[in-house]
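RESIDUES AND SHAPES:
===
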Amino acid sequence: MLPPIHVIDFEGNRAHGIMEFGLVTLENGQIKHIFYHQCSPKFSPQNAPFREHSRFRSDAVQHSFAEYLPLFRAKRQSGFFCAHSATVEDRLLRQYAFFPPIVKNMAFHAPLDGYRPFDKTQTPTQITPTATAPSWGPWIDTCRIYKKFYQTAKNYALAELIRHFRLETELQTLVAQHANNKKLTFHRALDDALATALLLQNFINLFRLKDVQFLLNC
């Protein structure tokens, strides 16, 4: 039986932090829990690049993503994280909590290659978020998975993969249910998290997976 897998999508950047997140939990390969929140940027959204953040300007958002860190720590301790191109989500998470939570089952935690946690010559102050550093992983990366097993795809953007596997109707139904009947819009956190969760679910069903290690090793 697969452990819980928490699918994440963040919208934001290094300069302004996480401004929106979608969090979808799969239990034994089935979508069970869905969270979505907008977050206040590190700086005023009026000073953010218009093209990237104009969609947030009309929303009164008061809570920083830092206030949601306990939720992400609890999720990480209960299972694995998944994202589409996971290095982006990992880097944004480490802007708020550079060191990941301690996971009781050490099989649930592995540092990124190159970081030596017991090397006394390498201290946390010598590490920057752009350098090799502790990860919130190991991550399940749907982009990497589909690149490995479906090499004939035109590209590996979420929209293209959703179309390729004919998941548009199912995705639109989920978005309508959980986003007040809004239409599907890629590059919004909830929509992209749901799309990633459907792609992961699709892969699990196609291969009839029961062992999470296969997903982690892709």
